[in-house]
Fold this sequence. Notes:
Blueprint: E1 10-13, E2 18-21, E3 28-36, E4 42-48, E5 54-57, E6 60-63, E7 68-75, E8 89-96, E9 117-126
Parallel strand pairs: 2-9
Antiparallel strand pairs: 1-3, 3-7, 4-6, 4-8, 5-7, 8-9
Pfam families: Motile_Sperm
Main location: other
Function: Central component in molecular interactions underlying sperm crawling. Forms an extensive filament system that extends from sperm villipoda, along the leading edge of the pseudopod.
Amino acid sequence: MAQSVPPGDIATQPGTKIVFNAPYDDKHTYHIKVTNSSARRIGWAFKTTNMKRLGVDPAAGVLDPKENALIAVSCDAFAYGQEDTNNDRITIEWTNTPDGAAKQFRREWFQGDGMVRRKNLPIEYNP
Length: 127
């Protein structure tokens, strides 16, 4: 039954974007806090538009109501100004977990009929 109810809200800190600062000759890591603001357990997963440059760890998980997780977003070294960074972003997707499901992430939750919500966090690079 949980699959027919739209997933509730999540909160991310930062809320709207992620900023990395130069120099870019070394790996940078930035932490995001994800909080399940809803009354239901959710499964969540991160995607990135640039797998070569951006990494997310852990990339997926499960959060109980009001629970939060700390996620490390890393940016590998790259030639700033010589590579296109305009479309860089990470996206978190989340969905309600099925009633009675174990607290273990399952990719299938995102492939069925259940509603999936998304939040985009653009990446900004300061020179």
